[in-house]
User: Fold this.
Amino acid sequence: MIPGVTSRKRFSDLSEQEILALAISSEEDDARIYRQYAQRLHADFPETARIFDEMAAEEDGHRQRLIDLHKARFGDVIPLVRREHVSGYYARRPVWLMENLGLERIRAEAELMERDAERFYRKAAERTTDANTRKLLGDLAAAEAGHSRRAEELERTQLDPEALDSESQLAHRQFVLTWVQPGLAGLMDGSVSTLAPIFATAFATQDTHTTFLVGLAASVGAGISMGFTEAASDDGELSGRGSPLKRGLASGLMTAAGGLGHALPYLIADFWTATFIAFAVVFFELWAIAWIQNRFMQTPFLRATFQVVLGGALVFAAGALIGGG
Assistant:
């Protein structure tokens, strides 16, 4: 074996005892993940957290049935066989380790876990010759397939419409605070603040290459500045605005995108062609800002349009006057 490389067995080479051991360790891991989800959801989504606690309890029941079968067939000593020991075996994605997972993302990951587990039990049942083992594995495959229905049942019995509506509103609010608000601030800053230097340079030099370089520098510099400022301004613990890294990325990337939008046309050599295209891009950017404000921030569309267009027009006029002078 090559030093530093862990040996992995193919699933087809596992003995029936090793298959049972793998199933036991997998059930332990899944129960632990469900409880981690429940812990993270408890403060804001207590009813959904209880659903994941019950799903974890079901995984514990599966594990105990597998242990009892192992004791009956092979004794008390269970081999240590985990997912990472088996070549080609499905692995749990590390997304569950991430902070600030959204409610819908957690539910989606749980559904994927159930499908993976069902597939494993069906393949494992095909590999076994013992009737009791084959029956148990088949029963567990059916149980995993029914987890989605079980989750729906738990939601119907434990989540009243008001609770579901409240959780959805809170999840939407968290999405807005973590992604939309910083991204919108960045897009506004990048789109509006770079108008003056880009168009001042354009009209002063009528050199598209120079204008592009100024626009690129202004956009990237503003993106870095806005990203770091947003990430450092609030750790999200008290405000509930979410991960500072996510907010910083949203703000920084959207700031750079806002400036680059009307800088990229100056890659075209003809000055007036590039300028007219840049005008069109600015119009689209300002309309997008107004739409996002109306869609996510509940700002009346006409008011948002007036604010954005007025601000953009003033900055553009300042740049044109300075460059034309």
